[in-house]
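queue> holo job accepted (adenosine-5'-triphosphate)
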Amino acid sequence: QEDVFKKLVSHCKEYGFVFPSSEIYDGLGAVYDYGQYGVELKNNIKKYWWDSMTLLHENVVGLDSAIFMHPTIWKASGHVDAFNDPLIDNKDSKKRYRADVLIEDYLAKIDEKIQKEVDKAAKKFGEAFDEAQFRATNGRVLEHQAKRDEIHTRFAKALNDSNFEDLRQIIIDCEIACPISGTRNWTEVRQFNLMFSTEMGSTADGASKIYLRPETAQGIFVNFLNVQKTGRMKIPFGIAQIGKAFRNEIVARQFIFRMREFEQMEMQFFVRPGEEMEWFKMWKSTRLKWHKAMGLGDEKYRYHDHEKLAHYANAATDIEYEMPFGFKEVEGIHSRTDFDLSQHEKFSGKKIQYFDPELNKSYTPYVIETSIGVDRVFLSVMAGSYCEETLENGETRVVLKLPAALAPIKLAVLPLVKKDGLPEKAEEIVNMLKFDFRCQYDEKDSIGKRYRRQDAIGTPYCITVDHDTLKDNCVTIRFRDTMEQERVSIDKLHDIISEKVSL
Ligand code: ATP
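queue> job finished
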């Protein structure tokens, strides 16, 4: 699986989807640029989300708030005091780690150890092997499993109690259980705030410290009254926003899964107090359907309901996708009570309430939030679409089986040869279709090579123009996934393509 992930990362780079930021200067940690195909795919993902929120729900409207906001907002939201991760340094290697992630890695290593024992035995005993029986009785497996369970329990408790001394001790114990570096020379665990800060205004004026927003949600909360009043919105209603967010993540790994600059699509849905659980359930199921409708495979998704809730939340769940490195959070759905609006009321001194004409009273609305990372959806789509296939003739092809609606290029128009009027005919087809679909014209290399190039960027249709086209006005359409080819009239192309490229 790790191997597949490495291939996926290099495919993203080789085919113009994702580049490391500032690459000619050796890159910048956990920051990435989207290339010519990446930006199209990303825009298509954003449009899919935006339309599903604001077109399909007449009570959800959009917003585009600024990245810079008044610094007190982050006091009110709790980010200045509590948006922290536990940090630890290794004194020998001078490497910095997020304590909880490090422990999770160790737990995974112990799991690997156990799996190795199981695999070894399976090989030895062949068909007669009963895995459950082996796990339940083998001494070494039981010993490792007991250690793992013990560490896991202590870890959960230490995190829950924010007990940093224990976190450090657990790391040391992990190293004894599962020697990796063998150093054990660790600093204390300390809190590290994830917000980036900068100064606004010249220092002579008394510049103030401001933050790059770590989430887009607060821009929605502070505009609640503006949108509600000017849009004459009636509860229940939602405000949706897409925008950049910044977090100074301690461990930068797993490609675009955890970035320091990333993009979020968030929607805050304002409801009557007491009705939030119904809406939470509704959004939970609506959001999962949105993911599944992309067609990457229903079994790739699961919910992860939170047992431990933030102090202001009364329900929370993640939608996880099975990445090449395991099931990981792609979206969070949270019932945030009236926490955010009440905090902003307290800190700003402005009354933030809604007068409900049906109930004939004012109240602070409760909020259901859906919060999803564009880059994580991008990664799920790429991972779910990447295939290496061996063809009947023994050749291999790499194909991105992207949902047609998200594919950066919808069709490629390919003249069989570069002469005899075929390029002109192909251009004509491009000119006919380019207003509705993103087309690519390609005349370089053999037709087989051109098909492979389109497969590698996930183009669902290739249209080949040959000598007969000039006589019968028909072309060959090749379907990416099946590689089947069909002879069709040029007049039919528009309908055939439109049928598949909308979600
Ligand atoms: P994690 O536990 O993975 O750090 P989180 O629980 O802090 O994520 P939220 O604060 O709930 O994440 O953010 C909402 C969504 O924003 C996440 O579901 C994820 O898709 C996205 N997101 C958060 N942090 C990052 C990041 N560093 N890089 C890319 N996407 C991110």
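queue> The mean pLDDT is 94.
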